[in-house]
Design a protein that fits this description.
Blueprint (H helix, E strand, L loop, with lengths): L2 E11 L1 H14 L4 E7 L3 E4 L8 H8 L4 E4 L7 E3 L3 E7 L6 H18 L4 E3 L20 E3 L4 E10 L2 E8 L5 H8 L16 H12 L3 E5 L4 H11 L6
Parallel strand pairs: 1-2, 1-11, 3-4
Antiparallel strand pairs: 2-6, 3-5, 6-10, 7-8, 8-9, 9-10
Length: 238
């Protein structure tokens, strides 16, 4: 019998709930799990080890222009607005991390190729100095033919288990992006990329790209919702 992979329904919620759920899945899932989600309002997620950021981000939060949340994964700040986020949990990822990153992204490459948007892996060195995740593209990121970083990824390794976060850039808000990062927003995704059905299309790509797993849609049950509530208590502060 093939191993089981878990798919979760696409969810829209605040940043604390989204991050708590991903952290909980990393600890609890026995096999790979994939979920897509959107955010209630614009959020700026800060990497696990990102301890310094521009003071004007705090001011934007005080003015209600965006909200701030800490990610369990590493990397730099990501603006979540007008895009689609995914979380992949992989308990038995390859020990060679570059190979793990490539395998963790290949289903996205395949999926976007089928949608008419070829993507390739970035080549910038990891750890480049930038407050903005989308300012550089490493081997864990995906870039389109125009040089736009279309998918930015961040990882957390925990006892051999991989959590990969990815932000799929679709319609970045020009004004807010400029306010946050002081630069022009990247180009919007091509019109052939469906904003409504992209999660379903990429979910199907995962099923096809990882055929060794029997994938099932499995929402959280009552017990898991209670455990998530307990996890959420630790994601209320930066």
């Amino acid at each position: 019998m093939p191993a089981t992979g878990r798919l979760l329904p696409t969810q829209q919620a605040d940043g604390h709930t989204q991050m708590a759920l991903d952290a909980w899945l990393l600890k609890r899932c026995n096999g790979p799990a994939l979920r897509f989600y959107r955010w209630d309002g614009p959020w700026l997620s800060l990497g696990r080890h990102q301890r310094q950021w521009p003071e004007h981000w705090n001011e934007l939060a005080r003015r209600g222009r965006l909200s701030l949340v800490r990610r369990p994964s590493g990397g730099r700040a990501v603006l979540h607005a007008g895009g689609l986020t995914y979380a992949l949990i992989w308990p038995d990822a390859p020990r060679r991390r570059q190979e793990a990153y490539r395998q963790a992204c290949q289903w996205l490459v395949d999926g976007f190729k089928g949608l008419g948007l070829p993507l390739h892996f970035g080549s910038d060195p990891a750890g480049a100095e930038a407050s903005n995740c989308f300012a550089s593209a490493t081997v864990a990121d995906l870039v389109d033919g125009s040089g736009v970083k279309r998918v930015g990824s961040a990882q957390l390794w925990q006892n051999g288990r991989l959590l990969q976060h990815g932000e799929i850039l679709l319609d970045p808000p020009a004004d807010l992006w400029s306010e946050v990062f002081g630069e022009a927003a990247p180009a919007v995704a091509p019109t052939q990329i469906s904003r409504l059905d992209l999660d379903q299309q990429l979910r199907q790509s995962m099923i096809q790209s990882w055929p060794d797993f029997c994938w099932h849609m499995q929402p959280l049950n009552t017990k898991e919702v209670q455990e998530l509530d307990d996890e959420l208590a630790s994601w209320s502060e930066l």
